[in-house]
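Section 5.1 Outputs to date
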Amino acid sequence: MKIIATNINYHKILDAGRSTITLESTALAQLAESLDENFTRAVEMLSQPNSRVIVSGMGKSGHIAKKIAATFASVGQPAFFVHPAEASHGDLGMITVNDVLLLLSHSGETQELKTMLDYSRRFHIPLVAITAKENSNLATIADISLCYPNVAEACPMGLAPTTSTTMMLALGDALAIATLSTRDFSHTDFRTFHPGGNLGKQLSRVRDFMHSGDRLPIVPKGMLMNECLIKISYFGFGCVAVVNESEQMLGIITDGDLRRHMHAGLLNDSVELVMTAHPISISADILMAEALAIMQDKSITSLFVTSMNKPIGILHIHDCLRAGII
């Protein structure tokens, strides 16, 4: 059994944590205020058609660079990380003249980036720099330099990259999202790049999970309730849609409708006397998360899917469970 020390100063620990977050949030506010026309120019350069964003950095900057590359790729801008040391041993061949370089260095003097700097100038490859030093080698060589505020690190010794890497990451996110805003990028596009995990589930479409064809619970107008009850039981959704001769949906009959119309002669009534007219319906193209929100808002368990007021499917709340969004 591991013995935990009893002389821990919990107040000191909390103060250190809160101080770190406060320092970094203050730095982020300064960063937001510092954005200028260089940021706009950088977004224009990074979002060129048919170009890729090649992101690189060394050490902690390299870790941030990998995340920035992943963020760009996830919003539809092709991007990947190239390790600056590996670039000197053949990986420069991964970079083409149609690409844009995004290099990260707090000091702007990272020696390992020199090969990539020289390569970019030799082949006229556009270069955007993220650094804290506006007079550094990286900043002066780059076509566009984004300099974040040179504020103190959260580390009490001022050594461990903390505040600086937080600003690098935020600036990379800002570039990626601003790039996204320059193009027509839809939910469908986002799902294309995020088919797995919870994001992919939330971005699933109703058409992927709805029941249709022989599983669609519909009855014609004029049918008597004794036959309708058999249909409701057979399909197992607790409801049916009532349609006319043109297959237009006139209304629905649910368990609630049955309770509201319960009387001795119910079985001999026509479905039109029991149905709820003008029911809520949805499109097959809406997101499963949107359909679930409608069910929760209206306290219902099923939704008919229609096209031109014709029922083409039905979605049950259990399908939301199947989609993994509950």
